[in-house]
Amino acid sequence: xxxxxxxxxxxxxxxxxxxxxxxxxxxxxxxxxxxxxxxxxxxxxxxxxxxxxxxxxxxxxxxxxxxxxxxxxxxxxxxxxxxxxxxxxxxxxxxxxxxxxxxxxxxxxxxxxxxxxxxxxxxxxxxxxxxxxxxxxxxxxxxxxxxxxxxxxxxxxxxxxxxxxxxxxxxxxxxxxxxxxxxxxxxxxxxxxxxxxxxxxxxxxxxxxxxxxxxxxxxxxxxxxxxxxxxxxxxxxxxxxxxxxxxxxxxxxxxxxxxxxxxxxxxxxxxxxxxxxxxxxxxxxxxxxxxxxxxxxxxxxxxxxxxxxxxxxxxxxxxxxxxxxxxxxxxxxxxxxxxxxxxxxxxxxxxxxxxxxxxxxxxxxxxxxxxxxxxxxxxxxxxxxxxxxxxxxxxxxxxxxxxxxxxxxxxxxxxxxxxxxxxxxxxxxxxxxxxxxxxxxxxxxxxxxxxxxxxxxxxxxxxxxxxxxxxxxxxxxxxxxxxxxxxxxxxxxxxxxxxxxxxxxxxxxxxxxxxxxxxxxxxxxxxxxxxxxxxxxxxxxxxxxxxxxxxxxxxxxxxxxxxxxxxxxxxxxxxxxxxxxxxxxxxxxxxxxxxxxxxx
Length: 600
What we know:
The protein is α+β, with helices and mostly antiparallel strands. The chain has helices spanning 15-37, 40-43, 58-73, 79-95, 106-109, 122-138, 144-162, 176-187, 190-202, 235-252, 255-272, 303-319, 323-339, 358-365, 387-396, 525-528; strands at residues 2-3, 9-11, 233-234, 287-288, 355-356, 403-406, 409-412, 418-422, 425-431, 438-452, 461-464, 467-469, 473-474, 477-491, 496-499, 513-516, 519-524, 535-536, 544-546, 552-561, 573-583, 595-596.
């Protein structure tokens, strides 16, 4: 499948358009402000300042912010963002070494260790700078950084592929691989594809440096990529590597590598993914652990790993399209990814727990030696701020995940209000999702359409030009031939439904989650009081949905109460009350409190 670039798609009124407006007018500005305050932009000037020493991965933070700006400026003018971007680009280009190398930390503080410390993110930062450069170039925003990063990529090619004189073979944090594929796609210069393939194929074949606190699996060195069958180690590192593997498999027609990618995907979504689409369940190494290990209170589920999973789904669909890839993309988008940002667009989560108990957090804060405990409120910047600019670039490019082509067919994979033209065919999509289950597609031209049927559907109703038509679903898609002006009305009959975890997920045994379309719902103490663990939901009959400042679903429920004794021979009494649920992505926008999404 070939995707339709976001620049060819106009987002229409609705949920994603509102999100992008907030992103362009608030989030990107606020990320800039916090990065400026913390010295990240100043670091690009490569001036030694021991009082404000930059971190080894600040370059990547700036790069993702620049990529976000590229996508915004591709669609509209913003003089302030353009000025800030130009200033950062000028600093990077002015301080690039004659050989092409640029790293604001190493060339100022450890020039003697350039390409000698495998764990310290040099190639990771280079990869994000390359991605930003390609985005700026393809958006028509800037050519300076593009030229500079081509020089940098050439230098990396010379050192790692030709001379092989660097102190390590592969980077501790994958990213350079997928960036090189992106540069190859932009330039058609095969050496960048060769270098990406080299980095992929050499991984797991050398006894290379790892952090003292961890082990080869953390850095994706536990096995050569073609021998991998299960997702292991640091979730973001793993998924960035898998993205590059899928890219190379597609471009080279490498069936074996494609099979490896499919096995890894099946292991993730079948045994290691949260209901929210989150991945990497453990704080220890931010890792995939073992099958069905999905704790809720102490879930890690990093925002960046959710974004990486979404990108992996997109690459798999381009490799060999299947409806399930878009199904998982939809789950990740409307749950874990959007939970990473606050309602006002200013605050962010790095970690995304599926349950919060304020008392646990407060007690932990009082300890001299703190345990890992997710925070109950989003913050504007972290020491490791990879997630905020990752979110801003993802949100701004969302239009690129809606449409695709496969042979003679035009695919609609996500129901996001939008317009596009593919060849001579014009499409206009109006959607109520994620809050509603209906969509209308207007087509002008001749086309074979394939419309994805969401996995959460409760039946499919189809009308073509006002006439009811029997819907036939094949491999997750409705197939409809169009000639002339055609209006297609879809109703997937959205309603709340229970979801039950596999019995091997012992944290969720005997409990159930509630979904409403693509959204996983949760309850907060702000609406329902404390002790959410004692709430039982027997039925969803009569549940009432309301779209307002927050989407809410009111459900008849019971709260189990016992006597004041710590233990009792008397069973608890079930007291009826109305449980108020909101989307998981909306939680923690009203101050500290408790949150839960698995119910008795």
